[in-house]
Amino acid sequence: MIIEECPTVLRLKHREDFVVTPQVESCANRALSYLEAGYPVHFSGPTGTGKTSMALYVAERLGQPVILIHGDEEYGSSDLVGGIHGYRFSKVVDNFIHSVLKTEETVRKQWVDNRLTTACKHGFTLLYDEFNRSRPEANNALLPILEEKVLELANVGEPYLQVNPKFKALFTSNPMEYAGVHTTQNALIDRMVTIKLHHFDRDSEIAITQAKSGLPLELAEKVVAIVRDFREQNGNHRPTVRASIMIARVVAQRCLGVSPEDTDFAEVCRDVLCMVDQEKAGNGQALKEKVNKVLEKQAGWFRRKRPKRERVQQDIK
Ligand SMILES: Nc1ncnc2c1ncn2[C@@H]1O[C@H](COP(=O)(O)OP(=O)(O)OP(=O)(O)O)[C@@H](O)[C@H]1O
Ligand SMILES: [Mg+2]
User: Which of ligand 1's atoms lies nearest the C-alpha of 24?
Assistant: First the structure.
């Protein structure tokens, strides 16, 4: 996504290498229908399933300014809502009659809105990426916003703010992440529609790999076939589409042949695919053998897929 405008309020425009496949389009349309019905949407799924990209795309389609927040362990509610940040000091000096000097000094607490308040006040789209990385108590302010459409502001003249009807909210989270995340309050999940994302379908993964690497379709297909085969062998969990993109980019940059028999290509595949699982990384040899097996299997498959004429010519040689 290309992000423009000032640091807190964004206007989104997707990048040229963002692809809208039927899978992407159908998911975005579902999300938009829930948002238009007044419900916040939550994209949930394992790493690399396109949650953030999808949320950004849907936010762009809503066509209004976007406030982006990334969940953070360190956040308190004032980081989202706002708080008293210092004092406003004003001094009026009245010297209208030169022999009379009148001064008046006032000190007021200074409330500064934070991003959530800005979005609620002006009716922007809130995109809260990986919201379960923030502690549940920091996210409590969202409960009345999403249900009663009011925001509670502590310690200011106006204790409540009516949420602007244009306000929309998108969330993402990875329920399978084990590092640095919190269990989300049921009350929050209950207020949003959760769309579960899984790995991209084959056509989408090929289109994304092709768009991000610039490889021709036929080569992107081969790279994706290897990654998807390895993923299946690995319990359909990882590697993600990022592995397809990484291999394809290196192939494009080094002009490698996409053939499992090409030793440089095989090495790149082993380097990228063997990092699928931190826990198994110690047992590198077993993983390498697994990759080799996938490459051998795919080599056979590629050979069978070769056009007949090419095979015949080679046989004659
Ligand atoms: N429609 C798309 N077009 C082009 N690239 C895409 C598309 N969807 C996802 N990608 C790419 O796929 C990769 C994974 O997507 P993304 O970062 O959105 O996943 P995620 O689920 O948010 O992952 P994580 O949980 O690790 O944050 C990224 O490189 C992203 O640019
Ligand atoms: Mg993400």
Answer: 1
Residue that is last in its domain, among 156, 175, 196 = 196
For residue 54, the SS3 value is helix
In-domain check, residue 246: yes
The predicted model scores a pTM of 0.85
Nearest protein CA to atom 16 of ligand 1, as residue: 50
The CA 51 to ligand 2 mean position distance, Å, reads 6
Domain holding 171, by residue range, is 2-76+114-196
Domain assignment of residue 86, yes or no: no
206 lies in the same domain as 222: yes
Ligand 1 nearest-atom number relative to CA 177: 25
Residues, Cβ < 5 Å to ion ligand 2: 52
Place of tokens 């002006």: 122
Task: Choose the residue to mutate in 52, 129, 181 for probing ligand 1, maximizing ligand atoms within 8 Å of C-beta.
Answer: 52
111 CA to centre of ligand 1 in angstroms: 37
Say what the pLDDT of residue 4 is: 47
- Same domain for 15 and 47? yes
Residue 210 domain flag: yes
Q: How many other β-carbons are positioned within 10 Å of the β-carbon of residue 163?
A: 20
Closest CA to 269 of 277, 278, 259: 259
The string of pLDDT tens digits covering residues 74-127 is 887 777 877 666 555 666 777 777 777 777 766 666 666 788 999 999 999 999
Q: How far apart are CA 3 and CA 245, in angstroms?
A: 22
- Residues contacting ligand 1 via CB (< 6 Å): 17-19, 24, 45, 47-53, 174, 208, 211-212, 241-242, 245
Residue 288: pLDDT band with limits 50, 70, 90 = confident
- Does some domain include residue 298? yes
Domain match, 45 and 64 both: yes
For residue 217, with 0-12 CB atoms within 10 Å meaning exposed, 13-18 middle and 19 or more buried, which class applies?
exposed
Q: Are residues 250 and 267 in the same domain?
A: yes
| Percent of the chain scoring above 70 in pLDDT | 83
